[in-house]
Amino acid sequence: MEYKTSEIKILFLYVLFIFIASITNFASQIIVQLLFKNILLTIVIGTVSGLIIKYILDSRYIFQSSTNLELKNFLLYSFFGALLTPIWWLFEYLGFLFTSSFEWGLFWGGIGLSLSYYLKYLLDKKYVFKE
């Protein structure tokens, strides 16, 4: 199977943006928890901040969308993320359940997370950032 340089670049950027969004999420959670000591607010602010940064980066650099701040697209983008999150959780839970090992649970969680992100990319490409 032969890959084009542009496909490898998109894959690299997509994975990089996952890390950037995750760091944004965790950093926001740390700041909010230190300031307000409210776990629900911490989770919400972390999730929303990571989601917004990932949406902006994906729309601009992955899908080259000219409508990168359109509310309808953002809501659909968010919906697909919420829809696919249970796939990740299911893989991780089954990994813990059937292996009785924390490490293997995380391994299977990583597989579920990768699958979820791949499916999300396909859905975003087809429905959110369609040309």
Describe this structure in words.
With 131 residues, the chain is mainly alpha-helical. The protein folds into two domains: 62 residues; 64 residues. It is built from four helices and no strands. Helix 1 runs antiparallel to helix 2 and helix 3 runs antiparallel to helix 4. The longest helix has 32 residues. The relative contact order is 0.10.
Features:
131 residues, mainly alpha, globular
Give a short overview.
The chain is mainly alpha-helical and 131 residues long.
Largest sheet: none
Instruction: List the total number of helices.
Output: 4
> N- to C-terminal separation?
26 Å
Fraction of residues in helix: over 70%
Number of strands: 0
Net shape: globular
Strand content: under 5%
The helix-strand sequence is HHHH
* Domain count: 2
Point out poorly predicted stretches. Answer: none
Average predicted confidence as pLDDT: 93
Return Rg in Å: 16 Å
